Amino acid sequence: MEDKRNIKKYIFDFKGAVALVAGMIAGVTLVSILNVASMFFFNVNFQYADFYLLLSNAALFLGAIFFFDFFICRPSTGRKLNFNFSTTNLMTYVLIFPMMLGMMFIAEFITAQIPTTGPFFGKYYEYFSKLMEQMTSNPATLIVLAVFMAPIFEEIVFRGIIMKGLLNKGVRPAFAIVISSVVFGIVHGNPWQFVGAVFLGCVLGLVYYKTKSLLLPILLHAFNNLCSSILIFYTKSESFADAAKISEWIILGLGIVLFTTFYILFTRKYRVHYKDI
Description:
Helix content: over 70%
Shape: globular
Number of helices: 10
Oligomer: single chain
Mean pLDDT: 90
């Protein structure tokens, strides 16, 4: 039987970051070349088709995962990337979903304080709003992209590769969670999603660190994105306060109570039990 103590572990450093970025560029470039070839030979431009958005997103992350696996993980460990998707007992799920909901309420309140008008924020927010309208014009495409593809691909990259690689490097868990979360927020490319993404990343990182499984962060990520998608469909915004027609301060209070209560239960009073490792 193989001694796990002697298994080499990959780390995440500058070379790993370069590999991820290069893989993303390569993946998107490949899809773009295919579209150019389609325009040249068949006079058909798929750039604005819904499936092209899905294909580009998949190529972006698959390229990153492949490059990190091929150029970083295998040369340093002699093994391919391997991710843990094990399940835990029911009580773990009972604790983490209310904790996640509390985080979403808190993040909504803080995001609402970021200006949407003015010489800088006004134009930026108008551009961001138009971009979101284009992405959400087809509900089916939004659900596939936000609820299924994004949670899987993003958790593999940001928790399974970046955060785990930082932990393997010896970075303290709290720092590894924050670093991966800030990077996660930055790649969203706008201040209104940055706040929510950082908060989301911290909760997902905490759950990943406690459970050592990517399955739970993926499910929580999908839950977060599903709630946002439903709010967009029915209220044209991502605001729980607007949907419930209550004060954003009430949302903040509920968020603090939910998050604090279930954070304490999850981290201090409860021990995770695995069903399958």
